[in-house]
Each structure stands twice: as C-alpha cells, then as structure tokens.
Specification:
Blueprint (H helix, E strand, L loop, with lengths): L2 H17 L6 E6 L2 E7 L2 H4 L6 H13 L8 E6 L3 H10 L3 E6 L14 H6 L11 E4 L3 H17 L1
Parallel strand pairs: 3-4, 4-5
Antiparallel strand pairs: 1-2, 1-3
Length: 157
C-alpha cells in the first residue's frame, strides 16, 4: 500500500467529520501495512476542544495495542497537526507522521518561535520525537479542498 492509499482512507474519515458539521480532519494509523485505528474530529459532538482526530485515533491505537508507544506506526493526517496534537505525537513516539494540507492558521509550524537553532543553522525546532520521520503534502490538494469547501459552506449559511 502507498502513502496516497492511506491518505485516501484518512480523507474518508475527514468526510465523516464534514458530514457531522465538524472541521473535516481525518486520521488513520497503520502498522505493518494494516490500519489499526481511525479517527475524525468530534469537538462539537463531544463538546471537547481536545477531541481532535489525532487524539481520538491515538487513544484507539493505544487501546488496541495495549501500549502507549507507537514507534512502528505511521499516522496519516489530512491536515498539519496543531501544537496540541504534535505534542501528543511526540509523547506517543510515533515512528512516522504523514500529512496532507498545511494549516497556516493553527498548524504546529505557526507556533514555532524563532530561536538560535533557526537563526544559526536554518533548522526549526522539531515538535515530534527525535526518531519520528515526517512527510507532508500527500494529496495536499484534495485535503485542502475539503477544508476550503467546508469553510466556504459555513460562511454561506
């Protein structure tokens, strides 16, 4: 299976959020070429600002594996993780993070404050575990379009 295949599965989860009136972010977590958990935003449904797709999918994966670490897992997220979710991914020691669209308003990159490592070495602080690999831009247009359509629809209501 490819990164694009799993991102398409995450997009299916994001569409569930969209249909529920939630910000359309979807996630799947894989290990050994198998989906072990899924999640989509449920902030409104659960009246919980921490009920992001990543948190829901991480909790499900931890319960499924009986472990709090996901070193061998890949998480596919339709939108760049926020700072809270980046922290959760750090503590889970997830092996690989793959996301689709950038989130200029609320993504983790917005909150990285310039520091000596940026100025001296051109390297931004890394919000994930040191062994975590990152890949961005997978199905970026499709992921971004779902988000744009959602907010365009909301503005017209």
């Amino acid at each position: 299976m490819t990164d694009e295949y799993y991102m398409l599965q995450a997009l299916k989860e994001a569409k569930k959020a969209y249909d529920d009136g939630e910000v359309p972010v979807g996630v799947v977590i894989t290990m050994n070429q198998r989906i072990i958990s899924k999640g989509y935003n449920q902030v409104e449904r659960l009246n919980d600002p921490t009920a992001h797709a990543e948190i829901i999918a991480l909790t499900s994966a931890f319960n499924y594996l009986g472990s709090k670490y996901l070193q061998e897992a890949t998480i596919y997220i339709t939108l760049e993780p926020c700072l809270m979710c980046a922290g959760a991914l750090y503590w889970s020691k997830v092996g690989r993070v793959v996301y689709g669209a950038d989130d200029e308003k609320n993504g983790y990159k917005k909150y990285i404050i310039p520091c000596p490592s940026v100025e001296q070495f051109g390297v931004a602080p890394w919000p994930f575990h040191p062994k975590t690999e990152l890949l961005s831009g997978v199905l970026k247009e499709e992921c971004g379009k779902l988000m744009k359509d959602f907010f365009k629809e909301r503005r017209n209501i």
